[in-house]
Write a structure and sequence with these properties.
The protein is built from 6 helices and 5 strands; from the N terminus they run ααβααββααββ. It is α+β, with helices and mostly antiparallel strands and about 140 residues long. It has one domain (about 5-105): Arc Repressor Mutant, subunit A (Orthogonal Bundle). Strands 1-3-2 form a 3-stranded antiparallel β-sheet. A two-stranded antiparallel sheet has the order 4-5.
């Protein structure tokens, strides 16, 4: 894979398992540190703290203080962080089809499994994945 590829650029920022799980947990809305600890099974406190700081430096997470003594923060996604929702849903769908009993994302109203479609905004056409190509 070329170092300058779009996928390499994305992985350099969020290619860590814990970062993706933190972003996923924040997609439902802002959360405090203790909420994130409970939402992300198996994450240690030092890893959570380090990843939150990295995500904040990268401009994907915003830390808003709600207490000065001791310093405590509520975390939320920035606009670029929220843009990762689609990619995470595609990864979740892949994991559901190739994982151990995970369920795919479902339509909230009827419960049907969702499918990803590629759409060209210029042509107004929904394409098959095979019709898409990557510019590197």
């Amino acid at each position: 894979m070329a170092e300058s590829s779009a996928l390499a650029a994305a992985l350099a920022r969020v290619g860590d398992r814990w970062k993706l799980l933190i972003i996923d947990a924040l997609l439902v809305g802002p959360a405090r540190y203790s909420d994130l600890e409970q939402a992300i099974e198996g994450i240690s406190t030092n890893i959570l703290s380090a990843r939150l700081k990295e995500l904040e430096r990268q401009g994907l997470v915003l830390a808003e203080p709600y207490s000065d003594r001791p310093p405590r923060f509520e975390y939320s996604l920035t606009a670029p962080g929220k843009e990762l929702a689609g990619a995470l849903r595609m990864l979740a769908d892949w994991g559901a089809h190739h994982g151990d009993g995970a369920t795919p994302p479902r339509h909230e109203l009827c419960g049907t499994s969702l499918e990803v479609r590629w759409y060209c905004p210029t042509c107004g056409v929904t394409t098959q994945e095979a019709d898409a190509f990557w510019l590197v």
